[in-house]
Write a structure and sequence with these properties.
Length: 188
């Protein structure tokens, strides 16, 4: 198989947002090319003893069903080391491991996921370029400069959230291309 993936879309569901305290419960990845065409998908649930105690507060009170689903999947999940090993193998299978072809991670607010990768899955984190593709930067620009908002579904499930992020970026790119074409037409 020809290794042609260029972006590794990552999303995680965690017990919270503090990498010093909280833990990863679910992790998903989609490998795409630069055209955002899906090449491969990977998901895993992470076994986390004590996760229930970390899942307190307003968000979890409002999302009790999600909380129970994630806890049940975590109970049947794999250790962080097993998950890390699987994700490393996934990356090796679909990406060229060569500094001349850096692997960029992508997603919505993916810098937050990167903090958890660095802390809990360091071997995976080392595989990625320091730059990343954060769809939320596009979101900010389109909301504030162009007054356009793209609504993406927020299921708080890792794989669904990645698919929503890819579609959101496609929308921004389409709108940007339309603007470029309109400007080129004006310049004729």
């Amino acid at each position: 198989m020809k290794k042609r993936a260029r972006l590794l879309w990552i999303d995680m569901e965690m017990t919270g947002l503090d990498p010093e305290r909280d833990r990863v419960l679910e992790l998903a990845a989609i490998a795409t090319d630069w055209n955002l065409e899906e090449i491969a998908t990977w998901t895993a649930a992470v076994k986390q003893a004590g996760a229930e105690e970390l899942m307190r507060g307003e968000f979890w009170d409002k999302n009790k069903s999600l909380r129970e689903t994630l806890l049940a999947e975590s109970a049947a999940g794999k250790s962080e080391r097993e998950v890390e090993k699987e994700l490393v193998e996934f990356v090796k299978e679909y990406f060229v491991l060569d500094r001349s072809r850096p692997i960029y991670i992508a997603g919505n607010s993916v810098h937050q996921d990167r903090k958890f990768l660095e802390r809990y899955l360091p071997e995976v984190d080392k595989m990625f370029h320091y730059r990343l593709l954060d769809v939320s930067a596009w979101k900010i620009m389109f909301m504030h400069k162009y007054r356009q908002k793209v609504q993406k579904p927020e299921t708080h499930r890792a794989l669904d959230d990645i698919k929503g992020s890819i579609e959101e970026l496609r929308t921004y790119l389409e709108r940007a291309e339309q603007g470029i074409k309109a400007n080129e037409k004006k310049g004729e």
